[in-house]
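job 3f2a | input accepted
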Amino acid sequence: MFRLLLESFREGSSVVWKSTFVPSEIIYSLGAIPLYVESFSAVASAVDICPPMLDASERCGYSRDSCTFLRAVLGASHKDILPRPDALVSTSYYCDGDPKIFDIFAEEYKKPHFYLHVPYTAEAGWAVDALAEQLEEVALELAKVTGKPFHIEKLSEIIQGSNEARRCLLKANELRRHVPSPMLGCEAIDYIASITQLWGSPELVRISRLLCEELEERIEKGVAAVEPEQFRLLWCHLRPYYNDEVFNYLEGHHKAVVAFESVNLITWKEMDPEKPFKGLAEKLLANPAIGPYERMTGEVAKMVKDYQIDGIIWMSPWGCRHFNSMAQLVKDGLRRELDVPFYILDLECIDKRNYSKEQVRTRLDAFIE
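job 3f2a | predicted structure (369 res):
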């Protein structure tokens, strides 16, 4: 990802800014670089250069109760420290802020913004075809903007690579069911950033194969991520990127391993390389955050059973409207079928100014108790 970021600054590179669920396979098929802009905020937070970026966006009038991932990117844009895009692509799900901020960026950089409307009725028969048509249209428009030829054969080849990475990551997820857990949650949750940006790249195939090999080796050697493993937790949503204290406290102090994370769940079936746009549409529509909350509730219940989960932590950043709105609904829905402790943790992903170490520890202590 660092290499991609460096390449995106080089003269002659074609750069497409994308929101979280825009298929990077299409962008790779054009020989362009997909820049997942929210990941820039996470990296900036980790190296502690985010506060000035957030301050810059707030001085421009953007409210502190909006998504900090997006506000940090806004601040970085105002400071002119981002590679300039040739085009921008966003989706309607499930971040309601992405299309709005991409409109702002499109105006600022005088570049086209392509919007993918993902049907709310994800399981309706017409939804796949409607979204596949949009994906094909966006691919052809990006080809015009970037000046790169689009070849369906190239996209089909890339889809095959994505299928291989998916198979490896599915196997890795199965290996992580092992008790005791072979992998720390603070180690595993960071895969989501690279996976979101790298789908369609040969690097992801290599990374996912290596991950399987390492997990198999750990299990064979009896390596436990946490010793002794007292509890197994499911973590929903992302993580605080400004420090590792929450995971270290849970896994180091309380010996409560984060056995799995909802962001690493793979819910889509293998894509047909002969029908790449349909396959990508089905992949997007398989996201459990789309549609009625019962879809997400069902996936969480399945993860609880698959990973022998003792408790759920649902991180709820105040700027994430969509995920926050689901928290209580999923909690109530689970209560009808599973007796598992469910804690909604109000915590910000990017803005360390809202973090209180002792307050968070007190909440986690109470939950573990």
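job 3f2a | The first strand starts at residue 15 and ends at 18.
job 3f2a | closed
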